[in-house]
TrEMBL record:
Keywords: Transferase. This is Polysaccharide pyruvyl transferase. It comes from the Bacteria. InterPro entries: Polysacch_pyruvyl_Trfase, Polysacch_pyruvyl_Trfase_CsaB.
């Protein structure tokens, strides 16, 4: 039997831990179901993607090579992640839509893999997304809000299925790995380990000052250790250092580019996490670590709602006292039974996404009850 060729388009090769974790999860799910698949990834850093994930990779700027791979593939997977939005970049939206259009022009099936859709503010962007996606073969989205937005836009032709973020299909990491890595920074003992995952956001420095004050309050009330965890290195490290320098007591800024397994282990070794980055919150949920989410994008709110929680504030409305109080409460109470149950449900949905993709090749697993 011919080995199926699958081409994956997404925000890969840029050092973003969440996106690299999604690629790890997608590849694992595909190879588990179709071990003979020949997978090629369109990447911002093909050498890094080949080394990290052990797959063929081509540059996202090498259009002749991309055209060749599209023409050879049996399936284009677009995703996961938030590719179709016009907040961070209008150019990137049209780039990802352009790859889909190229596949459609070559008469190749297109599958959207657990994408988070939006925000989409510009009328032209909304219309283009609708027109392109109505020509694809199947769409899975990672949350109900994305499905509702596509319906609002007028996407009606392909079936739209709500699954879950690809990372939720991953097996939990090893907290011992995290403890070992943190010992390099002098982090050990029984004092509470309070993790913080931050990012730069539109030049907004006010939230950094408020986070610094909240971290000071948490250190004062728990005698704990504040540990900044970079999900996109080195960009997140810069934001973390700004906050740490504004604190009264020392904090630890982890200063390395970690693998998915290492980051999951680090977060698993924490006692509580304050998270702005979506996949820091997802890692915490997978590892059974209580978290407090601060929203900068609807995708954060959507995920927290899916596990029975909600964001304490937006990045522009952080309240020092409220953040400190909720973090203390989560530290004391731990992760809730409701959240554990919801994570298990989301894991099942996430695992099913690869089956939906392989249906387009006629190779899905037929014994998966999640499709009934």
């Amino acid at each position: 039997m011919k080995r199926p060729r699958i081409l994956i388009s997404g925000y890969y090769g840029f050092g973003n831990a969440g996106d690299e974790a999604m690629l790890t999860a997608i590849l694992g799910a595909l190879y588990e179901r179709e071990p003979n698949a020949v997978v090629t990834v369109i990447s911002g850093n093909p050498a890094r993607t080949r080394e990290t994930h052990g797959v063929q990779a081509i540059s996202r700027l090498a259009m002749p090579r991309i055209l060749r791979e599209v023409s050879r593939c049996d399936l284009l997977i677009s995703g996961g992640g938030s590719l179709l939005q016009d907040v961070t970049s209008k150019r990137s939206l049209y780039y990802y839509l352009g790859i889909i259009r190229l596949a459609l022009w070559c008469k190749k099936p297109v599958f959207l893999y657990a994408q988070g859709i939006g925000p989409l503010f510009r009328p032209a962007a909304r219309n283009t997304v609708r027109d392109v996606l109505n020509r694809t073969q199947a769409i899975t989205v990672r949350d109900k809000g994305s499905q509702e937005l596509l319906t609002e836009l007028g996407v009606t032709t392909p079936p739209i299925t709500v699954t879950a973020d690809a990372v939720l299909a991953m097996h939990p990491g090893d907290p011992d790995i995290g403890r070992m890595l943190m010992r390099r920074y002098g982090i050990s003992g029984i004092a509470p380990k309070i993790g913080v995952s931050v990012r730069e956001w539109r030049g907004n420095g006010q939230y950094k000052q408020k986070l610094a004050q909240a971290c000071d309050e948490l250190q004062h009330r728990t005698d704990g250790q504040i540990i900044f965890v970079p999900m996109q290195y080195p960009e997140d490290k810069v934001a973390a250092e700004d906050i740490a320098s504004a604190m009264k007591k020392p904090a630890v800024v982890l200063d390395e580019a970690y693998t998915t397994a290492e980051l999951m282990g680090i977060i698993g070794a924490l006692d509580v996490l304050i998270g702005i980055r979506l996949h820091a919150l997802i890692f915490a949920a997978l590892m059974g670590v209580p978290s407090v989410g601060i929203s900068y994008d609807p995708k954060v709110d959507r995920f927290l709602e899916s596990v029975g929680e909600k964001a304490i504030a937006t990045i522009d409305t952080v309240d020092v006292d409220a953040l400190a109080e909720l973090t203390l409460k989560r530290l004391q109470q731990g992760i809730s039974d409701t959240e554990r149950k919801q994570v298990a449900i989301l894991r099942s949905r996430s695992e099913a996404t690869a089956d939906y993709a392989l249906r387009l090749l006629g190779r899905e697993k037929h014994n998966d009850s999640t499709h009934r």
